Amino acid sequence: MIQEERLIQIKHLLKKEHQVSTKEIAQKFGVSFDTARRDVIHLTTTGQAVRIHGGMMEINQNDVPNFLARNQVQSPVKLKMAQMAKRFVHPGQCDFIGPSTILKQLCPMLNGINMQIVTNSIDNALSLLTTEFPSVRLLGGMINKQQRYIYSETTLETIRRIRFNTAFIGGSKVDTDGVYTTSMADAEVVRAAINRANQIVLVAEKYKFTNQITSPYMSIPLDKVDVLITDAPLSDEIKQHFNSKAQIIPVLKE
């Protein structure tokens, strides 16, 4: 059994038992303890489970964990994805950066770069306050305290008056036709931003292509994505849903 198939079965087991030990994974799937440990590390560092002593426990899969809960996951993989995203940032640009725990890690890397950042994420803005550059426009409106983004009709109108070089976005689920979120307001802001951007960079871990989390609001069709930055290589079946010119960049090797 390949790791991808095993991870799906481990998640089913986790949903049933609520927590599972590394030793139990090794025994149930007939793999070495080191292999089971790598499975645990993969699921916990990508935010699909919570690490506990000796194994892991489930995250409530009936809902997407809020930003603060996801932000507690200290993931070197997310850091690698943020570092890759930085390659698409250049001085003099005006970029949109949406709310995302990965993109939050991108923002401190931009301090000192002479450019303009527009965001509706409180955490993105806070991460960009330590230096004179870049200049930051925090869009106004009502604060979603759980997901820590701002939304209003004024936000949408402001975005429609700006031309972005690049829009950096995330999502809670990626389906065959597009990127989805749990919030209609979040999806509306992203749609407004991508319609004003020359280039769309999506950051999304591989598990978001297969998870069962309810995310009903499409923010962008897959064929509009210019660059996908993900953690692990995707199957050809998944890749075919993107535009043939899209760059798909995994930060980890097989």
TrEMBL record:
It comes from Lactobacillus acidophilus (strain ATCC 700396 / NCK56 / N2 / NCFM). One of its GO terms (molecular function) is DNA-binding transcription factor activity. This is Transcriptional regulator. Residues 3-58 form the HTH deoR-type domain. The lineage of its organism: Bacteria, Bacillati, Bacillota, Bacilli, Lactobacillales. Keywords: DNA-binding, Transcription, Transcription regulation. It holds the Pfam family DeoRC. InterPro entries: Carb_Metab_HTH_regulators, DeoR-like_C, DeoR_HTH, NagB/RpiA_transferase-like, Tscrpt_reg_HTH_DeoR_CS, WH-like_DNA-bd_sf, WH_DNA-bd_sf.
